[in-house]
Design brief:
There is one protein chain. 69% of the residues lie in helices and 9% in strands. The longest helix is centred in the first third of the chain and has 62 residues. The strands form 4 sheets. Strands 9-13-14-3-15-16 form a 6-stranded mixed beta sheet. A 5-stranded antiparallel beta sheet has the order 2-1-4-5-8. Strands 10-11-12 form a 3-stranded antiparallel beta sheet. By secondary structure, the chain is of the alpha/beta class. It is flat and about 170 Å long. The protein starts with a strand and ends with a strand.
């Protein structure tokens, strides 16, 4: 990855747009970035990080203060970076989120963050040439191209030798914090914490189980009334309490049975005495009943006589009720006759006093006259129908004449319309004949256009398949080399591998001897059989991948050649234009063919219309003649009928009104005759009923009607008297039956009940107490059995939980550097130690060169003083003395060399692990002021090595001597109005 141009505006301390031309600064491969403290040197590196990843390193990103405080409120905050990565040149532009003045009104509003990615030149395969504008898509694309995350990039592009300088002088805890910051091993700390949390959760679960077990033991002890002895086991105690509960239950059952027998004997005696007392009471009650009935004999005789008179008065009461009803009917008949007279008087007052015979004769005469008018009523109705028909016929005649005129006009325009339709039909039929040729041409052009559109994708697919095949070949070759190397290393260490399998007294697989005086020692980083088998599997897998990509590349090339052959010299643009033209022609011809049936139908319809209209003219003319004839006939008929109807209606509005008048008159006359006849009949019936009532009074033996009616009683009174009499009879019979039944019982007998009742009460209390004791014993045994079963299950379930917790606790101790962990190194420390060892190994090469072969790094995993955790020790081996000594004993200049070597080693390790893009631009921070001239020369030689292959190195320093050594410089000038940049080449 090579940086070309960096532009910042209103960013950090830079209020205006500033440009850094890295191409100009990197002409010699080395440039100096210098300036006053706080001028903004680090901000330029932050700008590079922000342009790439949208954030800056460390705590500066948490502050969210990227906008320049000196910038004009209207100037946007923007960072733009132009760079080349993996052969693709692109421009990244980003703006952070910040507050800007509102466009309207006062105050501020939030300016949202935005970003853009623009490809300079050809875009990568699979990417749009227009670039990207979504922040998340840009982040994924940059991380894929660069090949590392933002945190890894911060470690590599700006070599953090200052932090390694602190590392050399720090203790174990501080070293761990610095290494975690550099290597990002927080996930292993999370694993340690996960084990700790799991152990805590397991301990809580175990404590809960134990607490439940203790609670069950306490409940069982409470239920059994016995606590376990200190020397007694849970199982023995469980057996003892369950046996004790069973014994207590058996004892209480025996006591309960004895109390039940005594209670039943006392209850039997009380029942016998109670039955005798009841029989004595019944005899006494029956005697009292008979005496009371004898005292009420006079009342019973009176009630019996009254009941007899009431029954004799019932026929008189019925006859009197019939007379009342007939008299009500007589009043109603008189009212009906009066209303009939009034109705007849409205028609003819002179006949209201006529007798019924004359009234019926008048009614019959009126009905006969009305019958004579019935025929004329129908004729009057026909007269009205004919008058309405005459009006309709006149309208129909006018309409028929107009239709004849309209049809004649339509026949005049029909020839011209028929000619136009036939011409359109011939044109559509001609177009339909050309449809097959136009469709074939369109399909041919469609096929060629599809091939032309597929051509770029086919070319891209061929290139990708070739690239994939090349990559697969490289992977296979690397896997083969690795397998061969592992096989050779295994052969070199085969003696040690065989030595591991030697046992005293067993034969050697090589020489056959049973004595092994000098077995080969262990070989560092020895290759095992499973390592070689894994390498062979990887080689086979990559070989299969190589063959697959070869076939895919060959198929892609064949597809591309076939497309080019089919297209020939046809250009894509010309094919598109020809296809559009053919598509239009086909659409027009198809539309024309679709109209042929409709046009044929239109011509046929016009021809049929002509025939229909010519036929319709004759029909319409005949209809006019028919309607005119009907009109004349109706006019003559209506005139002849009008005279007869005029004479028949008389003084009424029409014949029907006169006929209805006669019928109404006849109806009221008949009604009056019927009312007078009904009145006479009702008077006769009333006289007959009066005679029957007098005969009923005499037959019942009453002197007159009022006396008979006075003897009448209501049904409820009669029922009540009958109930009383039946009650006395029933009581007398019941009392006599009791005395007959208990003839041997004297009413003077005395029965003692208090003593038996007291004996029953005492027996019941004793039985109830025995039942309560038995139930309590049964409940106690049930609780003891239930709790004993639950406790047995809980003890069985507790054992595996205790074992699992012990295993998890031991594993957590090992992960956290305690317990059986002999090195006392936590997992995080172990990983950091391995990473530090890799960095130290890579840094030793550069340190030996810069120290002229004197110093090299030695990693130590020994525990610290007073039992502190180890694994993060880093000493230096002094070849002058041959002794190891702590790195903190190095001088200032030597510490700078060591920290710079570690920083460079870190860059090499991270870049190698991420497999990311090669970093062609690096920055090295302060520390050069502690070096003497000779050592500075050695450092500069090392930095010159970094420039190999076109790499550009930027030194961030205040050392004056470097300004004379490095002619290409980028200076940051600080002022009260903000910082500016100045490039010296």
């Amino acid at each position: 990855m090579r940086l070309h141009v960096l532009e910042v505006e209103a960013f950090g301390p830079y209020p205006r747009r500033e440009t850094v031309d890295f191409d100009a600064l990197g002409i010699d491969g080395l440039f100096l970035l210098h300036g006053d403290t706080g001028a903004g040197k680090t901000t330029l590196l932050d700008a590079v990080a922000f342009a790439l990843f949208g954030k800056v390193p460390g705590a500066r990103n948490d502050a969210k203060r990227l906008r320049c405080d000196y910038a004009d409120p209207g100037d946007p905050t923007e960072v733009a970076l132009e760079l080349t990565v993996q052969g693709h040149r692109l421009r990244l532009a980003r703006s952070p989120e910040y507050q800007r003045p509102k466009s309207r009104g006062t105050g501020f509003t939030k300016q949202q963050a935005k970003a853009s990615l623009t490809w300079i030149g050809q875009a990568p395969s699979g990417q749009s040439a227009e670039g990207l504008s979504r922040i998340d898509e840009i982040a994924r694309t940059v991380e894929r191209l660069v090949g590392m995350t933002a945190e890894q990039f911060f470690q590599v592009v700006l070599l953090p030798q200052g932090e390694f300088a602190r590392f050399l002088r720090s203790d174990t805890d501080e070293r761990q914090k610095l290494l975690e910051k550099l290597f990002g091993t927080e996930r292993f700390g999370e694993i340690e914490q996960w084990f700790t949390n799991q152990r805590q959760d397991s301990a809580r679960t175990l404590e809960e189980r134990q607490q439940d077990t203790r609670a069950l033991i306490a409940r069982l002890a409470q239920a059994a009334g016995s606590d376990p002895a200190e020397e007694q086991s849970e199982q023995d105690w469980l057996a003892a309490v369950t046996a004790e509960a069973a014994g207590q239950l058996a004892d209480t059952v025996v006591v309960e049975g004895k109390a039940r027998v005594e209670r039943e004997a006392a209850e039997q005696l009380l029942a016998e005495r109670t039955a005798l007392a009841e029989r004595v009471r019944r005899v006494r009650r029956a005697g009292a009943e008979l005496a009371e009935i004898e005292a009420a004999a006079a009342n019973r005789a009176t009630w019996t006589a009254e009941l007899a008179q009431a029954r004799r008065a019932l026929p008189v009461q019925a006859a009197q009720r019939v007379l009342v009803r007939i008299e009500r009917e007589l009043g109603a008949a008189d009212g009906e006759a009066t209303r009939g007279r009034a109705a007849v008087a409205r028609f003819d007052e002179s006949i209201v006093d006529s007798d019924a015979v004359r009234l019926r004769a008048l009614a019959a005469g009126h009905r006969e006259s009305a019958g004579e008018l019935a025929g004329l009523v129908a004729e009057a109705q026909r007269q009205q129908v004919d008058q309405r028909r005459l009006t309709q016929v006149r309208a129909e005649a006018d309409q028929a004449r107009r239709q004849v005129e309209q049809v004649g006009a339509d026949l005049g325009t029909l020839p011209e319309r028929l000619l136009t339709a036939r011409t359109a039909l011939e044109a559509a039929q001609e177009a339909a004949a050309r449809l097959d040729g136009v469709a074939a041409r369109r399909e041919e052009l469609a096929t060629l256009r599809t091939d032309a559109r597929r051509l770029p994708a086919a070319e891209t697919a061929a290139v990708r398949a070739a690239d994939a095949h090349g990559h697969a070949v490289d992977e296979h070759q690397a896997a083969r080399d690795k397998r061969q190397l592992l096989r050779q290393r295994r052969l070199d260490g085969m003696a040690a591998e065989l030595a591991e399998g030697l046992r005293a007294g067993e034969s050697c697989p090589v020489c056959g001897g049973t004595e092994h005086p000098a077995p080969a020692g262990a070989v560092a980083d020895r290759v095992r059989a499973e390592d070689e088998r894994a390498a062979e599997v990887d080689e086979a897998r990559t070989g299969e991948r190589r063959d697959q990509t070869a076939r895919a590349a060959q198929q892609a090339e064949q597809d591309l050649a076939a497309l080019r052959e089919r297209l020939g010299d046809n250009e894509s643009a010309a094919l598109e234009a020809a296809f559009v033209e053919a598509e239009t022609a086909l659409r027009l011809v198809t539309a024309a063919k679709a109209t042929v049936p409709a046009k044929v139908g239109a011509v046929a319809e016009l021809e049929a219309d002509a025939e229909r209209l010519r036929a319709y003219v004759g029909v319409a003319e005949r209809a006019v003649a028919t309607v005119v004839a009907e009109q004349a006939a109706l006019t003559e008929t209506i005139a002849a009928r009008a005279d007869r109807l005029e004479q028949a209606r008389g003084e009424h509005s029409d014949v029907a009104a006169r006929r209805q008048h006669l019928l109404d008159f006849a109806t009221v006359v008949e009604t009056l005759a019927q009312a007078r006849a009904a009145l006479a009949d009702t008077r006769r019936r009333a006289e007959d009923q009066r005679r029957e009532l007098a005969e009923a009074v005499s037959a019942a033996g009453f002197p007159d009607l009022p006396t008979a009616l006075a003897a009448v009683r209501a049904e409820t009174e009669v029922a009540e008297v009958e109930r009383r009499l039946r009650g006395f009879d029933d009581r007398e019979a019941a009392a006599k039956a009791v005395l007959t039944e208990l003839a041997g019982i004297s009413p003077d007998t005395e029965v003692e009940l208090d003593a038996p009742r007291e004996a029953v009460r005492l027996a019941r209390e004793a039985a109830e107490a025995a039942v309560a004791l038995a139930r309590a014993a049964a409940e106690r045994k049930r609780q003891v059995d239930e709790l004993a079963a639950r406790l047995t299950h809980a003890l069985a379930a507790l054992a595996p939980v205790q074992a699992a917790h012990a295993e998890l606790a031991a594993l957590a101790d090992v992960v956290n550097g305690r317990g059986q962990n002999n090195r006392k190194m936590s997992l995080r420390s172990y990983v950091l130690a391995a990473r530090l060892e890799e960095v130290a190994e890579a840094a030793t090469h550069r340190l030996r060169r810069m120290s002229q072969g004197r110093y090299s790094f030695v990693h130590s995993d020994e525990a610290g003083p007073r039992g502190t955790r180890g694994g993060l020790g880093l000493d230096v081996l002094d070849d002058y003395s041959g002794q190891r000594r702590p790195a903190k004993t190095l001088s200032g200049g030597e510490s700078f060399l060591a920290s710079l070597s570690l920083a460079l080693g870190l860059a090499d390790v991270v870049a190698a692990e991420t497999g990311g893009a090669v970093l062609d631009t690096l920055f090295v921070d302060e520390g050069f002021g502690t070096l003497d001239a000779d050592t500075l020369d050695l450092v500069m030689d090392t930095l010159d090595e970094l420039r190999a292959g076109g790499r550009v190195v930027g030194l961030v320093s205040h050392v004056e001597e470097l300004r004379s050594r490095i002619p290409t410089r980028l200076r940051v000038r600080k002022a009260r109005t903000g910082s500016t940049l100045e490039i010296t080449v």
